Amino acid sequence: ENPECGMFLAIKGGNNGESHNHNDIGSFILYRNGKPVLIDAGVGEDTRQTFSKDRYKIWSMQSLYHNVAAIGGQGQMNGAQYKASDVVYDEQDRRLTLELKDSYLPEVGIESYKRTATLKDGVATVTDSIRLNEEKEVDFIFMTHREPKLENGGKILLTEGCVLNYSTELEAEIEEFDPVGMDTNTLWDTEKLYRIHLKTTAKEFAFTFTVTV
């Protein structure tokens, strides 16, 4: 939709071997009326590490600091072989579906990780359907630049009057962290960033998250 009026949703496909890559296949950003709600934190100042073999030790390059799940404590890997597959966009329903299992190491044990995202009638919806080879902890991560507020009944208050709705089967936690190496005062007008963690432990499941106003 119009990024300056109403909701705007963008989601990343491709692979993790692109120029200036972050490990962020399937991650998304959400804006309302031109203002950020769920974010990609961005990048810090370039250093020797940024262009070295240790690039992916920098927090902002890791999928653990993007809007995508950690599985068994593991995030995505870097390299062109770590990619989205079975990408389908339904123009009529404005629905994008991606298979994300190949963006993680095989030993993480993901048999399928399908993410479906839609933006319709001012409601952003993300559904994650995951099947693992054994029961593991799955942590659905959402990044914000303003402090979220936990409410009863599976609701988290976000900025710009938005509400993240989630299943109460999930355990919710808000983490405030220091974005080391990044000038977030310039980028986001804040000294702190936040990760929303929504956790479950299971082998096969599907959860839907919506952002409403």
Structural write-up:
By secondary structure, the protein is mainly beta. The chain has one helix spanning 184-188, and strands at residues 7-11, 15-16, 28-32, 35-38, 69-71, 79-83, 85-90, 95-99, 110-120, 123-144, 149-151, 155-157, 163-165, 171-177, 193-212. 2% of the residues lie in helices and 49% in strands.
Write the layout of secondary structure elements.
Blueprint lengths: L6 E5 L3 E2 L11 E5 L2 E4 L30 E3 L7 E5 L1 E6 L4 E5 L10 E11 L2 E22 L4 E3 L3 E3 L5 E3 L5 E7 L6 H5 L4 E20 L1
Antiparallel strand pairs: 1-3, 2-6, 3-4, 5-10, 7-8, 8-9, 9-10, 10-15, 11-12, 12-13, 13-15, 14-15
Helix content: under 10%
| Topology pattern, helix = H, strand = E | EEEEEEEEEEEEEEHE
Strand content: over 45%
Distance from first to last alpha carbon: 15 Å
Offer a quick outline of the entry.
This protein is an all-beta fold. Helices cover 2% and strands 49% of the residues.
Which features does this protein show?
213 residues, mainly beta, ten-stranded antiparallel sheet, 1 helix, 15 strands, 2% helix
